[in-house]
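Whiteboard transcription, Tuesday session. T.W. wrote the structure tokens on the left side:
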């Protein structure tokens, strides 16, 4: 029996990807329902017809690709092209589809309940297609007349408009070479330098009132910049649809739709495709911790607390004034895991950074006594959320073993980045919030006082290998009056830039993967403003050029030297040379890889004092060449150092048989490696 995949040609498609969008088939179908599923292999293709097995999986909480069944799908039914709608609304009394095709008239196109206890309503409307605006008109048990956007909609209007849009997501990817090898780039023993980006404010247009750039415009400018700077990964702050740009995307309202502020679904695919063609991985921020209470969204979806907890002590987030998902409802688990799968399946995301994990784990998160409900054992742990997180990571890694799941988790919860079978949460990595806090507190101190805070730098190595840590200097550190990284630094302008270079070098020398937020790399003076472009004009001045050049060279060295990344998560990848020189505010250590000959020596001077002939112990005799020196003239430094390298002496220092008499430049970090 012959079948065909029906797609809809996008009339307004731009020429840049016209050749990449799958063209509609012309053969007439013979099966009742055939859906467009462009991301599925031929042997996986299935109708979007909902089966008894689908409803069984949904009621078990094990349906991890609901987007193939629910939502609006362009289909051919009995030879007639149209759209099949399917919605989960178990408590609704009546559901109909309203849109521009029927004058938004309630009851004109009624969906039918399956009547099997699944809570699914479905129906087919002929002669509809790509670009149709629609919502669901729901009659609640209380008699309320609700209009809701599609929870599984693939596209939506630009806010403040809120209709969903029937959308064919067909796209012909050009990243096959990347997808075949990305396991190498995402492996834990590979370099990972992540550039965190807010698409709406990285760079804005110089015309039209400084509007945000589109996905397509960013595909040229942002990809070229990230490639030039030498980053291995880019992390996009949430690109999922959100009603208010002031939330930075973290108030997600479309868990299956990209933000329409910047363009269409294919536009975002094109951006990701371009990154992949230059061997740059794309991590997407993803928010399963809460959702906004907008009337057209998930809140009180069918007139009941369907996606959220009914009890405010469990269902309302006091910090973000939003609703908390009910992780104990199995259909909600399927919904959220299907969302994660959607971005990995259809958008080729190389990882998800999961936001707000700490708020999910603790029932008393940001709550006072009496404002939360203990679990069944009387504890504060959210057992349902813990189970959800584990199932999420098991499902995602099973389907996509070459991606990374990264937790933003700020507490001492153990085994966040350990496998579920070992009792962990199953993430691949975790942001090291403790390192970030201690490091920034130290760096904001005037150097004259730093010797009294030496332990804030050394303490982190006591727990550095308990998790697979990512060192993060994220957007959270440059907002809400905290100031930019550069402005946090003490001293005059020269010292501020020297401290900034030292901070970034210190991060690259530490064990763990690296992430920092846009703008810091060239010394943004002002704290981040989501409504404005980064201050790119600063690059006309030498200190900012030097800071940018320093980050570029750090990335290049980091990718070149295996000792700086191969053993980030094991004790044998790090060795203190001297962590006790607190009176001098000097730290020295070795980074070690698989080959001892590739070891890198890291020496930091956290004071503005030039220390001459400073003894540093080394394990092997020979000439130790400077790989990088943050005080170099090209970076804006005073150009002090060791003339490119130094020969060791057979003098025991710090328990090592050989030593270097180094010049330690002021407020500097120096990387050295013994020449073979």
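and on the right, the sequence the group agreed on:
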């Amino acid at each position: 029996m012959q079948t065909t995949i029906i797609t809809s040609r996008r009339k307004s498609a731009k020429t840049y990807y016209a050749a990449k969008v799958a063209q509609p088939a012309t053969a007439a179908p013979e099966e009742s329902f055939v859906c467009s599923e462009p991301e599925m292999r031929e042997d996986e293709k299935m109708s979007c017809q909902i089966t008894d097995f689908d409803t069984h999986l949904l009621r078990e909480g094990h349906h991890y690709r609901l987007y193939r069944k629910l939502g609006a799908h362009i289909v051919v039914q009995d030879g007639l092209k149209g759209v099949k709608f399917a919605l989960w609304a178990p408590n609704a009394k009546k559901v109909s589809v309203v849109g521009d095709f029927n004058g938004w008239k309630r009851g004109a196109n009624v969906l039918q309940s399956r009547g099997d206890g699944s809570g699914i309503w479905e129906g087919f409307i002929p002669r509809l297609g790509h670009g149709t605006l629609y919502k669901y008109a729901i009659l609640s048990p209380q008699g309320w007349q609700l209009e809701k956007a599609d929870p599984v909609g693939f596209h939506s209007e630009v806010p403040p408009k809120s209709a969903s849009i029937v959308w064919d997501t067909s796209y012909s990817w050009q990243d096959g070479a990347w997808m075949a090898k990305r396991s190498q780039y995402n492996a834990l023993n590979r370099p990972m330098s992540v550039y965190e980006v807010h698409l709406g404010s990285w760079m804005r247009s110089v015309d039209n009132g400084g509007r945000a750039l589109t996905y397509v415009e960013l595909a040229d400018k942002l990809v070229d910049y990230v490639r030039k700077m030498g980053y291995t990964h880019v992390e996009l702050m949430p690109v999922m649809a959100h009603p208010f740009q002031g939330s930075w995307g973290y108030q997600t309202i479309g868990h299956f739709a990209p933000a329409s502020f910047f363009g269409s679904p294919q536009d975002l695919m094109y951006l990701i495709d371009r990154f992949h063609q230059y061997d740059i991985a794309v991590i997407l921020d993803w928010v399963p911790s809460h959702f906004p209470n907008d009337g057209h969204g998930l809140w009180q979806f069918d007139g009941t607390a369907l996606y959220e907890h009914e009890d405010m002590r469990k269902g309302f987030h006091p910090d973000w004034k939003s609703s908390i998902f009910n992780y104990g409802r199995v259909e909600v688990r399927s919904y959220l895991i299907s969302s994660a799968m959607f971005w990995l399946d259809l958008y080729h995301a190389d990882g998800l950074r999961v936001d707000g994990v700490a708020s999910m784990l603790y029932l008393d998160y940001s709550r006072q006594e009496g404002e939360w409900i203990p679990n069944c054992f009387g504890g504060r742990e959210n057992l349902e959320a813990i189970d959800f997180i584990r199932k999420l990571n098991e499902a995602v890694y099973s389907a996509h073993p070459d991606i990374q799941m990264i937790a933003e988790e700020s507490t001492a919860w153990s085994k966040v980045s350990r496998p579920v079978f070992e009792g962990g949460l199953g993430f691949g990595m975790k942001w090291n919030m403790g390192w970030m806090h201690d490091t920034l507190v130290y760096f904001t101190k005037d150097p004259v006082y730093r010797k009294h805070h030496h332990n804030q730098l050394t303490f982190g190595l006591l727990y550095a290998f308990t998790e697979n840590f990512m060192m993060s200097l994220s957007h959270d550190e440059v907002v809400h009056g905290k100031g930019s990284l550069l402005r946090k630094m003490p001293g005059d302008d020269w010292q501020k830039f020297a401290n900034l270079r030292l901070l970034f070098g210190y991060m690259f020398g530490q064990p763990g993967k690296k992430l920092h937020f846009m703008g810091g790399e060239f010394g943004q003076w002002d704290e981040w403003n989501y409504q404005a472009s980064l201050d790119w004009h600063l690059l006309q001045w030498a200190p900012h050029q030097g800071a940018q050049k320093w980050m570029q060279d750090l990335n290049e060295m980091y990718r070149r030297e295996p000792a700086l990344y191969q053993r980030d998560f094991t004790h044998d990848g790090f060795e203190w040379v001297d962590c006790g020189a607190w009176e001098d505010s000097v730290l020295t250590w070795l980074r070690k890889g698989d080959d001892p000959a590739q070891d890198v020596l890291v020496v930091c001077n956290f004071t503005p004092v030039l220390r001459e002939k400073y003894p540093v112990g080394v394990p092997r005799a020979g000439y130790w060449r400077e790989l990088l020196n943050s005080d170099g003239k090209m970076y804006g430094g005073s150009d002090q150092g060791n003339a490119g390298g130094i020969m060791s002496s057979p003098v025991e220092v710090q328990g090592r048989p050989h030593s270097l008499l180094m010049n330690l430049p002021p407020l500097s970090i120096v990387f050295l490696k013994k020449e073979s």
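Someone added at the bottom: Confidence is low (pLDDT under 50) at residues 1-34, 36-46.
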